[in-house]
Amino acid sequence: MDDSFYCPGYKTVEDRRIRCHKTIGHGAETFREGIMNSCNPVFIEIGARTGVSDMYKWYKRLGLMEKTGIDIPGEANSIFHKQKAVGEVELATMSFGQSFQITPLQLLRAVCSVVNGGKKITPHFGIKVVSRDGTSVKQLDYEEEDAVVSQETQDTMKELLEAVVAEGGGKNAYIEGYRIGGKTATSEKLPRRSGKYISSFLGFAPANHPKIMALLLIDEPEGVYYGGTIAAPAVRSIFENALPYLGIEPSYQ
Protein backbone atom coordinates (compact mmCIF):
# COMPACT_ATOMS: atom_id res chain seq x y z
CA MET A 1 0.00 0.00 0.00
CA ASP A 2 2.85 2.39 0.80
CA ASP A 3 5.24 1.35 -2.00
CA SER A 4 6.59 4.40 -3.80
CA PHE A 5 6.04 5.15 -7.50
CA TYR A 6 6.71 8.08 -9.76
CA CYS A 7 4.52 9.29 -12.63
CA PRO A 8 6.06 11.82 -15.06
CA GLY A 9 2.94 11.63 -17.23
CA TYR A 10 3.98 8.58 -19.21
CA LYS A 11 5.77 5.23 -19.04
CA THR A 12 8.16 4.02 -21.74
CA VAL A 13 7.79 0.31 -22.54
CA GLU A 14 10.10 -1.00 -25.25
CA ASP A 15 9.69 1.58 -28.04
CA ARG A 16 6.29 2.86 -26.88
CA ARG A 17 5.52 5.85 -24.72
CA ILE A 18 2.27 5.06 -22.89
CA ARG A 19 0.75 8.18 -21.44
CA CYS A 20 -1.16 8.83 -18.25
CA HIS A 21 -4.43 10.76 -18.40
CA LYS A 22 -2.64 13.47 -16.42
CA THR A 23 -0.10 14.43 -19.06
CA ILE A 24 2.00 16.56 -16.70
CA GLY A 25 2.23 13.58 -14.35
CA HIS A 26 1.11 12.82 -10.81
CA GLY A 27 4.67 12.94 -9.50
CA ALA A 28 5.56 10.81 -6.48
CA GLU A 29 2.74 8.49 -5.38
CA THR A 30 2.07 5.58 -3.09
CA PHE A 31 0.23 2.54 -4.45
CA ARG A 32 -2.93 3.77 -2.70
CA GLU A 33 -2.62 7.16 -4.36
CA GLY A 34 -1.98 5.53 -7.73
CA ILE A 35 -5.27 3.63 -7.46
CA MET A 36 -7.13 6.75 -6.34
CA ASN A 37 -5.65 8.74 -9.23
CA SER A 38 -6.22 5.96 -11.79
CA CYS A 39 -2.58 6.41 -12.78
CA ASN A 40 -1.49 4.30 -15.77
CA PRO A 41 2.26 4.30 -14.96
CA VAL A 42 1.51 2.84 -11.52
CA PHE A 43 -0.65 0.08 -13.01
CA ILE A 44 2.03 -0.62 -15.63
CA GLU A 45 4.67 -1.05 -12.91
CA ILE A 46 2.38 -3.37 -10.92
CA GLY A 47 1.71 -5.39 -14.09
CA ALA A 48 5.45 -5.74 -14.74
CA ARG A 49 6.02 -6.92 -11.17
CA THR A 50 3.15 -9.41 -11.47
CA GLY A 51 4.25 -10.88 -14.80
CA VAL A 52 2.27 -12.49 -17.60
CA SER A 53 1.88 -15.92 -15.98
CA ASP A 54 0.43 -14.63 -12.71
CA MET A 55 -1.68 -12.04 -14.54
CA TYR A 56 -3.37 -14.78 -16.55
CA LYS A 57 -3.72 -16.94 -13.46
CA TRP A 58 -5.77 -14.18 -11.83
CA TYR A 59 -7.81 -13.52 -14.97
CA LYS A 60 -8.83 -17.18 -14.84
CA ARG A 61 -9.34 -17.28 -11.08
CA LEU A 62 -11.65 -14.26 -11.20
CA GLY A 63 -13.68 -15.80 -14.01
CA LEU A 64 -12.71 -13.33 -16.71
CA MET A 65 -11.77 -16.06 -19.21
CA GLU A 66 -15.04 -17.98 -18.99
CA LYS A 67 -18.74 -17.27 -19.39
CA THR A 68 -20.54 -16.40 -16.16
CA GLY A 69 -23.25 -19.04 -16.66
CA ILE A 70 -26.11 -16.55 -16.31
CA ASP A 71 -29.54 -18.10 -16.91
CA ILE A 72 -30.31 -16.35 -20.21
CA PRO A 73 -29.29 -17.49 -23.69
CA GLY A 74 -26.66 -15.96 -25.94
CA GLU A 75 -24.03 -14.94 -23.38
CA ALA A 76 -20.82 -13.73 -25.02
CA ASN A 77 -17.34 -14.60 -23.80
CA SER A 78 -14.16 -12.57 -23.36
CA ILE A 79 -11.35 -12.17 -25.90
CA PHE A 80 -7.73 -12.32 -24.71
CA HIS A 81 -4.36 -12.61 -26.39
CA LYS A 82 -2.89 -16.09 -26.24
CA GLN A 83 -0.65 -16.02 -23.18
CA LYS A 84 2.50 -16.91 -25.14
CA ALA A 85 1.87 -13.96 -27.48
CA VAL A 86 1.88 -11.35 -24.70
CA GLY A 87 4.98 -9.16 -24.76
CA GLU A 88 6.00 -6.23 -22.57
CA VAL A 89 3.78 -3.71 -24.39
CA GLU A 90 0.71 -5.97 -24.25
CA LEU A 91 1.32 -6.67 -20.55
CA ALA A 92 1.64 -2.95 -19.89
CA THR A 93 -1.65 -2.05 -21.56
CA MET A 94 -3.46 -5.05 -20.08
CA SER A 95 -2.41 -3.91 -16.61
CA PHE A 96 -4.77 -0.93 -16.85
CA GLY A 97 -7.59 -2.70 -18.69
CA GLN A 98 -6.75 -2.33 -22.38
CA SER A 99 -5.86 -4.93 -25.06
CA PHE A 100 -8.57 -7.43 -24.11
CA GLN A 101 -12.34 -7.57 -24.18
CA ILE A 102 -14.67 -8.70 -21.41
CA THR A 103 -18.41 -8.36 -20.92
CA PRO A 104 -20.00 -6.11 -18.29
CA LEU A 105 -21.32 -9.26 -16.57
CA GLN A 106 -17.83 -10.74 -16.33
CA LEU A 107 -16.52 -7.53 -14.80
CA LEU A 108 -19.35 -7.33 -12.27
CA ARG A 109 -18.87 -10.96 -11.30
CA ALA A 110 -15.12 -10.51 -10.86
CA VAL A 111 -15.46 -7.44 -8.64
CA CYS A 112 -18.25 -9.11 -6.65
CA SER A 113 -15.93 -12.02 -5.93
CA VAL A 114 -13.40 -9.59 -4.45
CA VAL A 115 -15.74 -7.51 -2.26
CA ASN A 116 -18.57 -9.87 -1.26
CA GLY A 117 -16.69 -12.25 0.99
CA GLY A 118 -14.50 -13.91 -1.63
CA LYS A 119 -17.29 -15.92 -3.29
CA LYS A 120 -17.40 -16.21 -7.08
CA ILE A 121 -21.11 -16.34 -7.79
CA THR A 122 -23.22 -17.28 -10.79
CA PRO A 123 -25.35 -14.24 -11.71
CA HIS A 124 -29.00 -15.11 -12.32
CA PHE A 125 -32.51 -13.79 -12.81
CA GLY A 126 -34.47 -16.91 -11.79
CA ILE A 127 -35.06 -17.60 -8.09
CA LYS A 128 -37.68 -20.34 -8.17
CA VAL A 129 -40.23 -22.07 -10.37
CA VAL A 130 -43.88 -21.61 -9.38
CA SER A 131 -47.09 -23.17 -10.66
CA ARG A 132 -50.09 -21.24 -11.98
CA ASP A 133 -51.69 -21.21 -8.53
CA GLY A 134 -48.56 -19.67 -6.99
CA THR A 135 -47.31 -22.86 -5.38
CA SER A 136 -43.54 -23.17 -5.31
CA VAL A 137 -42.42 -26.08 -7.48
CA LYS A 138 -38.64 -25.79 -7.39
CA GLN A 139 -36.04 -23.58 -5.77
CA LEU A 140 -33.28 -22.73 -8.23
CA ASP A 141 -29.71 -23.14 -6.98
CA TYR A 142 -26.59 -21.60 -8.48
CA GLU A 143 -22.95 -22.54 -8.12
CA GLU A 144 -20.69 -20.56 -5.80
CA GLU A 145 -16.92 -20.87 -5.52
CA ASP A 146 -15.41 -19.95 -2.17
CA ALA A 147 -12.12 -18.28 -1.28
CA VAL A 148 -11.27 -16.69 -4.61
CA VAL A 149 -9.22 -14.12 -2.69
CA SER A 150 -8.05 -14.00 0.92
CA GLN A 151 -9.80 -12.00 3.63
CA GLU A 152 -6.80 -9.67 3.79
CA THR A 153 -7.08 -8.98 0.05
CA GLN A 154 -10.82 -8.37 0.35
CA ASP A 155 -10.34 -5.86 3.14
CA THR A 156 -7.51 -4.09 1.31
CA MET A 157 -9.46 -3.80 -1.95
CA LYS A 158 -12.58 -2.48 -0.24
CA GLU A 159 -10.47 0.12 1.56
CA LEU A 160 -8.76 1.17 -1.69
CA LEU A 161 -11.99 1.37 -3.69
CA GLU A 162 -13.74 3.34 -0.96
CA ALA A 163 -10.82 5.79 -1.05
CA VAL A 164 -11.35 6.24 -4.81
CA VAL A 165 -14.83 7.64 -4.08
CA ALA A 166 -14.01 9.46 -0.85
CA GLU A 167 -10.79 11.12 -2.00
CA GLY A 168 -9.92 10.18 -5.59
CA GLY A 169 -11.22 10.13 -9.14
CA GLY A 170 -14.62 8.73 -8.15
CA LYS A 171 -15.71 11.66 -5.97
CA ASN A 172 -18.71 12.29 -8.20
CA ALA A 173 -20.25 9.04 -6.92
CA TYR A 174 -20.08 10.14 -3.28
CA ILE A 175 -23.35 10.24 -1.30
CA GLU A 176 -23.29 11.98 2.06
CA GLY A 177 -23.77 9.54 4.91
CA TYR A 178 -23.01 6.42 2.86
CA ARG A 179 -19.81 4.46 2.39
CA ILE A 180 -19.42 3.98 -1.37
CA GLY A 181 -16.67 2.06 -3.15
CA GLY A 182 -15.92 2.24 -6.84
CA LYS A 183 -13.54 2.61 -9.75
CA THR A 184 -13.48 4.84 -12.78
CA ALA A 185 -12.49 3.69 -16.27
CA THR A 186 -11.88 5.35 -19.61
CA SER A 187 -11.07 2.94 -22.44
CA GLU A 188 -9.84 3.82 -25.92
CA LYS A 189 -11.69 2.19 -28.80
CA LEU A 190 -9.87 0.83 -31.82
CA PRO A 191 -8.45 2.20 -33.98
CA ARG A 192 -6.86 4.49 -31.39
CA ARG A 193 -6.57 7.36 -33.85
CA SER A 194 -10.39 7.49 -34.00
CA GLY A 195 -10.44 9.38 -30.70
CA LYS A 196 -13.44 7.37 -29.46
CA TYR A 197 -13.85 6.04 -25.92
CA ILE A 198 -15.98 3.97 -23.58
CA SER A 199 -16.36 5.74 -20.24
CA SER A 200 -17.55 3.83 -17.19
CA PHE A 201 -17.88 3.69 -13.45
CA LEU A 202 -18.43 0.65 -11.26
CA GLY A 203 -19.70 1.29 -7.75
CA PHE A 204 -20.88 -0.73 -4.75
CA ALA A 205 -22.45 0.09 -1.41
CA PRO A 206 -22.13 0.03 1.51
CA ALA A 207 -18.38 -0.26 0.92
CA ASN A 208 -17.74 -2.21 4.13
CA HIS A 209 -20.60 -4.70 3.57
CA PRO A 210 -21.85 -4.48 -0.04
CA LYS A 211 -25.51 -5.05 -0.83
CA ILE A 212 -25.72 -3.45 -4.27
CA MET A 213 -23.37 -2.99 -7.21
CA ALA A 214 -23.83 -0.96 -10.39
CA LEU A 215 -21.83 -0.63 -13.58
CA LEU A 216 -22.62 2.21 -15.96
CA LEU A 217 -20.98 2.50 -19.39
CA ILE A 218 -21.21 5.39 -21.84
CA ASP A 219 -20.25 4.44 -25.39
CA GLU A 220 -18.52 7.14 -27.43
CA PRO A 221 -19.37 10.15 -25.25
CA GLU A 222 -19.08 13.56 -26.85
CA GLY A 223 -16.92 16.24 -25.27
CA VAL A 224 -15.69 15.24 -21.81
CA TYR A 225 -15.09 11.48 -21.78
CA TYR A 226 -13.57 10.60 -18.39
CA GLY A 227 -15.53 7.95 -16.48
CA GLY A 228 -15.16 9.73 -13.16
CA THR A 229 -16.65 12.88 -14.64
CA ILE A 230 -19.63 11.59 -16.63
CA ALA A 231 -20.38 8.01 -15.49
CA ALA A 232 -19.85 8.33 -11.72
CA PRO A 233 -22.67 10.90 -11.25
CA ALA A 234 -25.12 8.53 -12.95
CA VAL A 235 -24.19 5.71 -10.55
CA ARG A 236 -24.62 8.13 -7.65
CA SER A 237 -28.14 8.87 -8.89
CA ILE A 238 -28.92 5.13 -9.06
CA PHE A 239 -27.68 4.60 -5.51
CA GLU A 240 -29.56 7.64 -4.18
CA ASN A 241 -32.77 5.92 -5.24
CA ALA A 242 -31.84 2.27 -4.66
CA LEU A 243 -30.27 2.44 -1.19
CA PRO A 244 -33.36 3.85 0.59
CA TYR A 245 -35.56 1.43 -1.39
CA LEU A 246 -33.46 -1.47 -0.09
CA GLY A 247 -33.80 -0.15 3.46
CA ILE A 248 -30.11 0.73 3.75
CA GLU A 249 -29.77 3.73 6.03
CA PRO A 250 -26.85 6.20 6.07
CA SER A 251 -24.09 5.01 8.38
CA TYR A 252 -23.07 8.50 9.47
CA GLN A 253 -24.28 12.09 9.29
Distance between the termini: 29 Å
Radius of gyration: 19 Å
CATH H level of the largest domain: which superfamily?
A: DD-peptidase/beta-lactamase superfamily
Number of DSSP strand runs: 9
Inertia-based shape = globular
Helical residues, percent: 25-40%
| Total tally of structural domains | 2
| Protein structure class | alpha+beta
Overall pLDDT confidence? 95
Task: Tell me the CATH topology of the largest domain.
Answer: Beta-lactamase
**Main beta sheet, described?**
3 strands, antiparallel
The CATH architecture of the largest domain can be given as 3-Layer(aba) Sandwich
Strand order of the largest sheet: 7-8-9
CATH class descriptor name of the largest domain: Alpha Beta
What's the number of helices? 8
Q: Give helix and strand order, one letter per element, not per position.
A: EEEEHHHHHEEHEEEHH
**Beta-sheet strand percentage?**
15-25%
The low-confidence runs, each spanning 5 or more residues with pLDDT under 50, are none
Structure characterization notes:
This protein has 2 domains: 1-106, Beta-lactamase; 150-252, DD-peptidase/beta-lactamase superfamily (Beta-lactamase, 3-Layer(aba) Sandwich), CATH 3.40.710. The protein contains 8 helices and 9 strands. The protein has a 3-stranded antiparallel β-sheet with strand order 7-8-9, with helices on both faces. The protein has a two-stranded antiparallel ribbon with strand order 1-4. Helix content is 32%, strand content 19%. The chain has helices spanning 31-37, 40-50, 52-61, 88-94, 104-115, 151-166, 227-230, 232-245; strands at residues 4-7, 10-13, 16-19, 27-30, 128-130, 136-139, 181-188, 197-205, 212-219. 30% of the residues are buried.
